[in-house]
Amino acid sequence: MFNTILFPIDRSREAREAAETVANLVKTYNSRLVLLSVVENTPESKMDSEAEVAKLLQAAQALFAEKGIETEVIEREGMASFTICDVADEIDANLIIMGCRGLGLTNEGATESVTIRVINLSPCPVLIVP
């Protein structure tokens, strides 16, 4: 059912908390797991260094390796919501799993929320872990 699962990660608490759900689904469906880190190059966002992004991806890989799960990693630059959906399409993902900060629950947050944009643009189902 879920042959390929895409898990966009960042440093947020919500992404760390979603990791357990990701691990459970990957094991249940014997899925391929692809971790994605998106670096946004905007004046408003703080640009992460390549070393910081590599460290984040290595930590995520180690977390899943402890659970006996192999991962693939992809690092991209761009607007997070569009990049997540583009990568999901490229890898033929059957599911995107994301943590949610809850910012989309306000009128202001709904237009800015990466999660809401991914839900609206995604080429596959999206599971939001609160």
From TrEMBL:
Superkingdom to which the source organism belongs: Bacteria
Transmembrane segments: none
InterPro entries: Rossmann-like_a/b/a_fold, Universal_stress_UspA, UspA
Gene3D superfamilies membership: HUPs
Annotated ranges, domain UspA: 1-130
Pfam families reported for this sequence: Usp (PF00582)
Family per similarity comment: Belongs to the universal stress protein A family.
Alphabetized PANTHER family for the sequence: STRESS RESPONSE PROTEIN NHAX (PTHR46268), UNIVERSAL STRESS PROTEIN UP12 (PTHR46268:SF6)
Protein name per UniProt: UspA domain-containing protein
Protein source organism: Stanieria cyanosphaera (strain ATCC 29371 / PCC 7437)
